[in-house]
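R.M. (postdoc): so does anyone remember the format we settled on? I'll just put the structure tokens first.
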């Protein structure tokens, strides 16, 4: 598949590198092709292409949004026509003071993103852990069990495409339901950050689904 990344930092860079290594054509949709984040990602994986955002998105089947949440709607606005009909993977998190939900839990960030680009097919995914787990999702020693990647969205075909990517990257995709379920995913992220960073438990843990 052809993938584009709006935001090439800790999250975007890690996922972009992983997607190239999984065999996809990946373009960093860079506002500044010389930004430290873009240069660092390309240094890690020279197969990454770099292009202006509108050009990168025009050629993409799936677009990842990995900017700060506060920057997302302004970054998306001029790209709305190019994003029409595209799968848009929302990796952002609205984080408020004291690790509270940045929109006071009244609405998910993903729904705000969807409202900014109504014709895009938004899927919330790759957000419930720190970037370290996107760089390396391997948890050996658990047999066939894979770490869980929860996703949410209103478009089943879009969710299926993102679930396929998650599987290729080493995750077990878990469909959490409609895009409105992103609010719960965003709270999972806040919980992960509290445990990993605020409590000092470190980043080497993930959620998994055990079934019987
Ligand atoms: N860090 C984590 O562990 C983690 C985990 C899960 C989710 N998230 C979420 O993922 C998102 C990205 O986090 P990150 O840690 O990867 O951030 P980061 O390392 O600071 O990277 C941010 C990227 O967004 C781009 N950007 C910033 N402002 C922009 C704007 N106005 N327009 C277009 N692009 C802009 C930057 O562009 P330049 O390259 O030009 O600087 C950079 O490539 C955030 O919403 C965060 O909440 C983070």
């Amino acid at each position: 598949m052809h993938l584009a990344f709006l935001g090439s930092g800790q999250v975007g860079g890690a996922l972009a590198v992983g997607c190239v290594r999984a065999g996809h054509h990946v373009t960093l949709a860079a506002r500044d092709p010389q930004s430290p984040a873009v240069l660092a990602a390309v240094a890690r994986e020279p197969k990454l292409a770099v292009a202006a955002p509108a050009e990168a998105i025009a050629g993409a089947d799936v677009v990842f949004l990995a900017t700060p949440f506060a920057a997302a709607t302004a970054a998306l606005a001029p790209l709305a026509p190019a994003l029409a009909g595209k799968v848009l993977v929302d990796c952002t998190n609205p984080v408020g003071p004291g690790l509270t939900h940045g929109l006071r839990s009244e609405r998910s960030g993903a729904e705000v993103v969807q409202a900014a680009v109504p014709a895009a097919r938004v899927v919330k995914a790759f957000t419930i852990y720190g970037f370290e787990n996107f760089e390396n999702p391997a948890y050996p020693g658990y047999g066939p069990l894979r770490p869980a990647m929860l996703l949410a969205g209103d478009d089943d075909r879009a969710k299926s495409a993102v679930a396929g990517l998650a599987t290729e990257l080493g995750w077990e995709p878990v469909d959490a339901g409609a895009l409105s379920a992103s609010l719960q995913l965003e709270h999972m992220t806040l919980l992960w950050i509290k445990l990993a960073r605020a409590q000092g438990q470190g980043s080497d843990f993930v959620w998994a689904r055990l079934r019987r």
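R.M.: ...and that's the designed sequence above, right after the tokens. Also worth knowing: The pocket of NAP is lined by residues 7-12, 31-32, 35, 37-38, 66-69, 71, 74-75, 91-93, 127, 130-131 (CB under 6 Å). The domain at 2-198 is CATH 3.40.50.720 (Rossmann fold).
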